[in-house]
TrEMBL record:
InterPro entries reported for this sequence: Tscrpt_reg_TrmB_N (IPR002831), WH-like_DNA-bd_sf (IPR036388), WH_DNA-bd_sf (IPR036390)
SUPFAM superfamilies, per database record: Winged helix' DNA-binding domain (SSF46785)
Entry protein name: Transcription regulator TrmB N-terminal domain-containing protein
Signal peptide: none
The Transcription regulator TrmB N-terminal domain, residue ranges: 25-72
Amino acid sequence: MQLSERSTADVSIPDEFDSAQAKVVYLYLHVWPESTADDLCAALSINKGTVLSIIRTLRKRGYVERDEGQYRLC
């Protein structure tokens, strides 16, 4: 699937996401899967501690998986 196809596809953000930053991280990973924490920090202007905390929560809830330092939606 090309980037344009992924970015225009419908994406539903789970209702349990209260944090705007978590929603942005989720949407970013929808469009750019296999991103690193540094990619997320640079693209979203969120500090690394916050990104890692969000990713940890999303992983615990089963929305994100990690493979060789890269994150993607499950």
